[in-house]
Amino acid sequence: MIRVVTIEREYGSGGGVIAKKLAGRLGWKLWDQLLTDEIARNLDCDCRAVERHEERCDPLYYRLFKAFLRGSFEGTLNASRLKMVDSDCVREIAERVVTTAGKEGNSVIVGRGSALYLQNLPDAFHVFIYATEEEKIRRLEETGKSHGEAVELIETVDRDRYAFIKQYFGVDWPKPHLFDLMINSRMGDELAVETVLHGIQAFRGQPIRV
To answer: Which of 31, 130, 135, 136 is most buried (CB neighbours < 10 A)?
Structure first.
């Protein structure tokens, strides 16, 4: 019985909006901004600090600095007081929160590696949302982004996500076999939600538990 849906998405494809509408239809908890908030609460930091590191890898110079700091006497003494928020600690807390949400069920979880953390959870259904570049640009422009900003964000955000998945999970992003359903959001948000719902119903003949 499906009790969890993960939504991985290309940037600008509307995956977050589709996930919100899906959660509303199911009456399930949406783990998107809530996931960021919970990570920030666990790390005792501002949400903006978490957002800067979600689904990203830290640059090489930072990783070298961190390795040096951990290996130094001063760094060892002050490590607990530094409260360094970086990709490693954000990923670690994200895994913990996502795993807990998966066990609780009745959850729609957006990105952050959730499809991989919950890959072996038998009652999880994994969805990937993608779109043409034209569609992604259109959607981003509707949110107030300029054409140039949209093009740059589409390239850089997905490049960061690819690097994040490659570094922490050792697989290419997106890996089709990780997903039960892949949807082109050009069909529209409502039809995309209906497609996910029908996909869940058809998946091994299992009904949805609402």
So the answer is: 31
Crossing angle, helix 87-104 and helix 147-169, to 10 degrees? 80
Residue at 139: amino acid letter: R
**In this structure, what token pair is assigned to residue 86?**
């970086």
Q: What domains appear along the chain, each with residue ranges and CATH number? A: 4-201 (3.40.50.300)
Q: Encoding tokens for residue 204?
A: 């091994």
